TrEMBL record:
InterPro entries (alphabetical): AB_hydrolase_1, AB_hydrolase_fold, AB_hydrolase_sf
Superkingdom of origin: Bacteria
UniProt lineage: Bacteria, Pseudomonadati, Bacteroidota, Cytophagia, Cytophagales
Signal peptide residue numbers: none
Keywords: Hydrolase
Domain AB hydrolase-1: 21-130
Protein's name according to its UniProt entry: Pimeloyl-ACP methyl ester carboxylesterase
Keyword Hydrolase: yes
Length: 260
């Protein structure tokens, strides 16, 4: 489906129904497609909505408007258009920071955050050499193929491989440059005291994009009540690499939140 927000069109995927809505947000250079395997396992109990953030997937790529708050505004608009009430935000990598920014606003109905290898609330530790390599490699198939190798550890099918590369290549240049030059460097740590809902984090033990130690160093100091789990043997793209393990993680955390 396509929804118009702030004069741009955002592409969304929706499955299932239930009193609780799970809102899935993707990684930098990805799309909502990464969540289909997870959503298929949860849609019998929950309403699942996955959003292509601006400049990604099937959504529009405006020339400007790529701050963390701009993307959080887009998600808020989608929540209103879909008349979402009680919900959980599931953010992956780049969109982990977006989810944290949105949670700090304490929107009505938000129950918890589930973060997958999230970009921390402080500037993301991307080495300068890697940042420049990503900037110059935009739109190049060879660069997209190399990125795939760098950010996955578990072997994926050929169809998944093609989708990951296609998502990388169709990411708008404005969105690409904006995240690397500005969004990833944003510091929203002063807002984290306003995040009072449960926060659960999961990372791959072999994540080379945001290694496991990033969370204890740069995220947990600002969210001391958050939990952290390690998925052994996985890389950065858990929704693609280990969708069943990730769906189980989400299910268990939702049960814990309800029981509390």
């Amino acid at each position: 489906m396509t929804e118009t927000v702030s004069r741009i069109s955002l592409h969304t995927l929706e499955q299932g129904s239930g009193p609780l809505t799970l809102v899935f947000l993707h990684y930098f250079g990805g799309s909502a497609q990464e969540w289909l395997g997870v959503m298929s396992q949860l849609s019998d109990q929950y309403r699942c909505i996955a959003i292509d953030l601006r400049g990604h997937g099937g959504s529009d790529s405006p020339a400007t408007g790529y701050t963390v708050d701009d993307m959080a505004d887009d998600v808020t608009d989608i929540l209103h258009q879909y008349e979402v009430q009680d919900f959980v935000l599931v953010g992956h990598s780049m969109s982990g920071k977006v989810a944290l920014a949105l949670a700090s606003r304490q929107p009505t109905g938000l129950q918890s955050l589930l973060l997958v290898s999230p970009s921390p609330p402080v500037p993301e530790p991307i080495p300068d050499k890697e940042r420049q390599k990503l900037l110059t490699g935009h739109g190049q198939r060879s660069a997209a193929e190399q990125t795939l190798k760098n950010i996955t550890e578990v072997a994926v099918s050929e169809a998944v491989r093609k989708q990951i590369i296609a998502d990388d290549l169709r990411t708008g240049k404005s969105a690409w440059d904006a995240w690397l030059l500005a969004g990833s460097k944003e510091d929203i740590s002063d807002r984290m005291a306003a995040v009072t809902i449960p926060v659960h984090i999961i990372v791959g033990s072999e994540d080379r994009a945001l290694p496991p130690d990033v969370q204890p160093r740069l995220t947990l100091p600002y969210l001391p009540a958050a939990t952290l789990e390690i998925c052994r043997g996985a890389g950065h793209l858990l929704p693609w690499e280990v969708p069943y393990d990730l769906a189980n993680f989400i299910s268990k955390k939702l049960v814990v939140n309800v029981s509390n």
